[in-house]
Amino acid sequence: MSEGYSIEIADELVGIIVRGDDERVFRFHSAVKAFKALDGHRFAKPEAAERAVREHAALRRRHAS
């Protein structure tokens, strides 16, 4: 059975991470265009994926201002 989690920022779904039965890592799948750069990235733990998403969002905010 695969394992998956959604990742949200400010109550908006930005992506999901999924680990298949035979996989040791979680793979990120973007739900919105702003996080497409992380699509396909692999993470050992869900917490690492969430941290990367938050860092990516912070970088986007800094570049927008």
In short:
With 65 residues, the protein is α+β, with helices and mostly antiparallel strands. Helix content is 29%, strand content 34%.
Would you mind describing this structure in some detail?
- By secondary structure, the protein is of the alpha+beta class.
- It has one domain (3-64).
- Helices cover 29% and strands 34% of the residues.
- The protein has one helix at 46-64; strands at residues 3-9, 12-19, 26-30, 42-43.
- Strands 1-2-3-4 form a 4-stranded antiparallel beta sheet, covered by helices on one side.
- A hairpin with a 6-residue loop joins β2 and β3.
- The chain starts with a strand and ends with a helix.
- The mean pLDDT is 94.
Strand content: 25-35%
Largest sheet: 4 strands, antiparallel
Which regions have little confidence, pLDDT < 50, spanning 5+ residues? none
How many DSSP E strands? 4
Class of secondary structure makeup: alpha+beta
Count of discrete alpha- or pi-helical segments spanning 4 or more residues: 1
Mean pLDDT: 94
Spatial order of the strands forming the largest sheet: 1-2-3-4
Number of domains: 1
How large, in whole angstroms, is the Cα Rg? 12 Å
Fraction of helical residues: 25-40%
Shape designation: elongated
Distance separating the two termini? 43 Å
Helices and strands, in order, run as: EEEEH
